[in-house]
Amino acid sequence: MLANNDKAPSIESRDELVAEIAKGEKPKADWRIGSEHEKVPFYRDTLRPVPYEGDAGISALLQGLAARFGWQPVYDLEKVIALEAPANCSGGSITLEPGGQFELSGAPLRTLFETCEEVGRHLDQVQEIADPLGISFLALGFSPLWTIAETPRMPKSRYKIMTDYMPKVGRYGLDMMYRTATVQVNLDFASEADMVKKMRVSLALQPIATALFANSPFTEGKPNGYLSFRSAVWLDTDNARAGMLPFAFEDGMGYERYVDYALDVPMYFVRRDHKYVDATGQSFRAFLEGKLPQLPGEKPTIEDWADHLTTIFPEVRLKRFLEMRGADSGPWHATLCVLPALWVGLLYDQSALDAAWDLVKDWTDEERQQLRDDVPRLGLATPFRRGTVRDLASATVAIAEAGLASRAREHGFKDESSFLKPLHDILESGLTQADVLLRRYHLEWGGDVRPVFTENAY
Fold first, then answer.
1. For residue 137, what pLDDT is reported?
2. Would the pTM of this model clear 0.90, i.e. be above it?
3. What class of enzyme is it (predicted)?
């Protein structure tokens, strides 16, 4: 059931919020890798989206996974809207995005081999239940055929609040909710200084990851003019809670500065008595002062703060760990195991992190934003100084590869750098997954997007 925060202790000061984030600090030996990926379900025979209800709907898929593999259902108003890992697993969950995008939030694991095995096991389980229902999953960053009106809506109470609010604050909020799919990796930090350096490096290089993993060139059956339309959507979704966080590069950046930012990001909701209370547009700072109009005199709990942090969507998000948020979803071999490898290589070896910082430390706010603005359309061909993003991506991947090799030597792991091979192939050809799909659309598929449901599907 949804949490009931009524009897939890109240937060009395901003310092408690800072301390909550600081609890994420871990010694290097305890750093883990948490991967997340979304995929878009569809019916193989009709290429139509999968609704929640019905004998072959999302609900049936969730219930089948629970019955066959022991996943534990999570309910919202008596509807199964998520699954928690079975007792014999190391953790993780399966959740639903607003349009039915099926997401694995993986357990925190030690190596990339374990992470990739987890993804493979999840896909095997899902396919075992989905195949008899006639369901497959798109490995793309944006739904390529259906309109928003044709896209199903999942029965999660928070999504109703967001659906009503999004059109008020941006052009593409509903597209983000209902038609995008991403792959992310969550990584640890040792200290406040370590967090700051990792956040700065990952913010600066997030457009490079966007370019390398670009995989959303179609909308409603036609090319949309972008290589990563998923990324472009975020440029006009809700800029009060998204973006490149230029303040992260200012003197004095740390936990307190991020907390101050989060306190002023407009709220979506508060959970009380297993229900969502609409708090759109209100500030958490006012809530902390007992001045939230919906709950007069009441102060938030740590669970309220944790909920609020999940509604903030910058390119890199800070909670008790750092979330890399810049990549389109894609195929298992080319994306789901590769994106975590890129960031682990860059951030989990000190020499690699130092080299990555040397690469980006003199970039200006304007240059970082220009990369963010241009990469969704131009990808690896995006100009930067006297070269292109392809040049930056080559340097970035080389640093990550060296970082993975060094990590293997330090910890006695099997060398994980082989996971980066798909990126070397992209850099050698200059063609991302989106570029390849567009070529096939024009040269092989005769201007018909429907073959992508076979070529880029699980």
1. 98
2. yes
3. ligase
